[in-house]
Amino acid sequence: MAKFGGYWAVLCFQQMATKTQIRAEDYLRMTFEHDAEFVHGEIVERSMPDLTHGIIQGLIVIEFGKLTATHPLFPCVEVRMRVAPGLYRIPDVAVFAGKLPDQPVPDKPPLVVVEILSKDDRHSDLMQKLEEYRDWGVTHIWVIDPSTKRFSMYTELGLQHVSSLSLSDYPFQLTPAELFANL
Length: 183
Hints:
CATH topology: tt1808, chain A
CATH superfamily: tt1808, chain A
Strand content: 25-35%
Low-confidence stretches: 1-18
Order of helices and strands: HHEEHEEEEEHEEEEEH
Helix content: 25-40%
Strand order of the largest sheet: 3-6-7-8-9-10
Shape: globular
CATH class: Alpha Beta
Largest sheet: 6 strands, mixed
Radius of gyration: 19 Å
CATH architecture: Alpha-Beta Complex
Mean pLDDT: 89
Number of domains: 1
């Protein structure tokens, strides 16, 4: 019995260490309790957002929503996007400019992508995702850290803390004091 138990433990460990590969088409037909991303054949779980995370998403969409009557901007929350072949990410907030994407899973980069950090986000995973957005052609990549109440921008120079988030072609500016005023 002990021999069987040891064999079973090794078999279970090997199965856990092996990652199952699936096709992008299968991923796009799947539903999840909390949506997951797709990275080169693997399903990648996203951090589970908390109340603060959700409120920040809502406040950012409200701020961009103030501009939609006068500017062709389309903010959205947690939409699957095809960043590259075999790579689907779900930004916390994305803002499209010009016209609304004509596909349910956009493959053209938005003007803005916002990632809101969660307590269990890994820095290396975040940096990989930010670089993928940059390679895709996203002009404004913003990171909001609720725990430190800081804003950052990701550019070719890397991740840099900033005192506000703004768009030069639009009357949009947001400071941490404004965003976190009631949190």
